[in-house]
Amino acid sequence: MVLGGGGSTGNAWLIGVIAGLYEAGLDVTDADLIIGTSAGATAAAQFTGANPTDLLAPTLIAVPVPVSAQRTAPAGSDGHRAQGGPVTDHLERRRRIIAAAEDAADMRRRMGAVALDLAAASDPAVQARWRATVASRLPSHDWPERRVQITAVNADTGAPVVFDRHSGVDLVDAVAASSGFAYGIGGGRYIDGGYRSNAENADLAAGYERVLVLSPFGGRALTPVEWGLHLATQVDALRAGGSRVETIFPESSAEHLFGARAMDVSLRPSAAQAGFDQGRVRAERLTEFWR
């Protein structure tokens, strides 16, 4: 199962979809491999530590958040604020970097350099606060026995990184790095896993018989098609390799909950409900595929 990034509302939608499937009798959290990126990394860790129904209940409840807190939280590759400025500023910065980059590796290096510069000028306490925030969202801080992969990118080198329980990195730190901006672990610093290839990183599922991809951003990407990073390209490659692939994107009626509004926490209940309704509808079709 591949859980893509998509900010706060994307995380809520992921919880909703899987809870909807679960309510309809299909538990996809028993996947042999769960791949999580950014907000999807949070969801991956959440689903390995709690029942989908238990995760859904609090997500459907609106929780007031001070405006100042929403404005100062950081942003990852999918608009998921982790440690930076407004989502619109971040997306514009990313567009400029992509336009100047020669290829994906160059883009990752450039983005890492920007992240390091911003981090150098930021409050050192930001990382500690971000880690505490991530920790508060996870039902368990221990890596599960089942296989979970959390994506990130090394900010110093631009190299793609995949954390798992054998990496020697705490689960909380792995999730924080996947949705962070120059998040430090040991001697390394990391940026959002969406910079590895895209918000889904579905290519990591190569070799698996069945692959279910949940993408809050609907597979959209800012990088040039010729870089070969788009979700559609990765899905084609998976199918060419013998995998059966199903994708779930938000319904068009719910698209306003994502994108530029991905960090509006007041929309989390609506996003979770939209995902839940969608999951229940898709359950019958997916049951044959999954089992």
From TrEMBL:
<feature type="domain" description="PNPLA">
    <location>
        <begin position="2"/>
        <end position="206"/>
    </location>
</feature>
<protein>
    <submittedName>
        <fullName>Patatin-like phospholipase family protein</fullName>
    </submittedName>
</protein>
<feature type="active site" description="Proton acceptor">
    <location>
        <position position="192"/>
    </location>
</feature>
<feature type="short sequence motif" description="GXSXG">
    <location>
        <begin position="36"/>
        <end position="40"/>
    </location>
</feature>
<keyword id="KW-0443">Lipid metabolism</keyword>
<dbReference type="InterPro" id="IPR016035">
    <property type="entry name" value="Acyl_Trfase/lysoPLipase"/>
</dbReference>
<feature type="short sequence motif" description="DGA/G">
    <location>
        <begin position="192"/>
        <end position="194"/>
    </location>
</feature>
<dbReference type="Pfam" id="PF01734">
    <property type="entry name" value="Patatin"/>
</dbReference>
<dbReference type="InterPro" id="IPR002641">
    <property type="entry name" value="PNPLA_dom"/>
</dbReference>
<feature type="active site" description="Nucleophile">
    <location>
        <position position="38"/>
    </location>
</feature>
<keyword id="KW-0378">Hydrolase</keyword>
<keyword id="KW-0442">Lipid degradation</keyword>
